[in-house]
Design a protein that fits this description.
The protein is of the alpha+beta class. Strands 1, 2, 3, 4, 5 and 6 form a 6-stranded antiparallel sheet that branches. It has helices at residues 35-52, 56-63, 137-146, 158-170; strands at residues 14-19, 65-76, 85-95, 99-108, 114-126, 131-132. Helix content is 28%, strand content 31%.
Length: 175
């Protein structure tokens, strides 16, 4: 589970570095398209466990609810290559009563070259019924604290967001 510390300021952009592994690459030494998902999801799981003290399995076992992927949008901008260190940034960029959108960004190690962007939309599900259910108040409060500000998700296209990220990287303002 997780418990909010009301006196703590939680970071909204979580980041880590990862080495692109040979086994995950194609014969051209580029990261296989499907493997981007593994790198993103593994990084996010580590991010929320380390920074937010959130354990997905514990939450699932105690609440009988979970987030189920509803939609992905991914843009492959510049290939990640074998043995390259990359930076992975993950953020909550939108939520409502039963929906969560997570943004994943992969750059080069130095936050200068955009590699890929992924938006994952998840629905909050009661696993006993298999139906959508509203986020409980403590989850909504948590999202209030960690949701990245300044993104008008409902009025921003995925491609427009990629352009903004590229510009922020160029200006050194992304992280």
């Amino acid at each position: 589970m997780f418990k909010l510390d009301p006196n703590k300021e939680y970071p909204k952009k979580l980041h880590s570095k990862s080495l692109i592994r040979f086994q995950d690459c194609d014969p051209l030494k580029h990261l296989n398209n499907a493997k981007y998902f593994d790198y993103f999801f593994n990084a996010r799981e580590d991010h929320v466990a380390e920074v937010y003290n959130f354990d997905y399995n514990d939450y699932f076992e105690n609440n009988h609810t979970s987030w189920v992927v509803y939609n992905h949008q991914i843009g492959y901008v510049s290939s990640a290559r074998v043995s390259e260190w990359v930076t992975i940034i993950s953020s909550t960029i939108y939520y409502n009563e039963d929906t969560l959108v997570t943004e994943y960004v992969m750059t080069d190690e130095h936050l200068q070259v955009l590699k890929a962007v992924l938006w994952t939309t998840s629905k909050y599900i009661d696993v006993r019924t298999g139906k959508k259910t509203p986020h409980p108040p403590e989850v909504m409060e948590f999202f209030d604290k960690v949701c990245l500000e300044g993104i008008d998700f409902e009025h921003t296209s995925f491609n427009a967001r990629i352009k903004v990220i590229k510009q922020e990287l160029k200006e050194g303002k992304f992280v």
